[in-house]
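User: Reviewer 2 asked us to show a designed sequence for the structure in our supplementary figure. I'm pasting the structure tokens here. Could you produce the per-position amino acids so we can include them in the response letter?
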């Protein structure tokens, strides 16, 4: 029997485990062991101050000119504002950006210097669960591709069935540069009527 199974069968919860030998947190007079554990064996860079992290609203539920009632599980597509706010944020290398995603969106991040016009929007793939608009799939200089919004859990009782759309994806930027962040949902990135780029912004990472 494996150790975990033994404790599960014995009905010993995680709180009790920490009092058992081998499960207690590492400690030492100067806290070194505990700190090393926290660092996961790597170098610990202090990240503090306003440039340690930034928040970006990645799509917003829009109050527009009328109340919006999402209770208990409505995500009306026509009431979603397809923009990044703010569209430019600045952090320092090693910092992170929290993308607060509201609505059916797909976070893509491209390497330093990439512009919207550099993205090959003829490269797409269908979302895993249909029907939904195509997702841009240009791998050139792509650093990050977020969750496929079509595979998130379905909201119980939603009509028509809708996946949970609101979430946070947090990305750490190790290197300096100016990184393109965009929505991979094709009609969100490129306006199908005007051809203009809509849903994108930049993360500036300082040394
Ligand atoms: Cu989008």
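Assistant: Here is a per-position design you can include in the supplement:
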């Amino acid at each position: 029997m494996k150790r975990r199974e033994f404790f599960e069968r014995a009905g010993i919860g995680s709180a009790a485990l920490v009092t058992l030998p081998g499960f207690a947190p590492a400690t030492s007079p100067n806290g070194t062991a505990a700190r090393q554990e926290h660092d996961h064996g790597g170098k610990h860079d202090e990240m503090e101050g306003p440039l340690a992290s930034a928040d970006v609203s990645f799509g917003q539920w829009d109050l527009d000119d009328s109340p919006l009632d999402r209770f208990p599980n409505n995500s009306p597509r026509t009431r979603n504002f397809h923009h990044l706010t703010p569209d430019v944020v600045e952090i320092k290398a090693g910092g992170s950006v929290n993308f607060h995603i509201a609505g059916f969106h797909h976070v893509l991040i491209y390497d330093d210097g990439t512009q919207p016009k550099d993205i090959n929007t003829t490269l797409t793939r269908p979302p895993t669960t249909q029907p939904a608009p195509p997702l841009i799939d240009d791998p050139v200089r792509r650093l990050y591709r977020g969750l496929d919004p079509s595979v998130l859990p379905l909201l119980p009782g939603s009509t028509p069935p809708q996946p949970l759309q609101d979430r946070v994806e947090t990305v750490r930027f190790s290197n300096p540069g100016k990184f393109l962040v965009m929505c991979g949902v094709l009609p969100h990135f490129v306006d199908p009527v005007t051809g203009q780029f809509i849903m994108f912004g930049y993360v500036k990472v300082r040394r």
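For the response letter, you might also mention the following. Residues 59, 82, 105, 183, 185, 188, 199 surround copper (II) ion (CB under 6 Å). The two ends are 51 Å apart (CA to CA).
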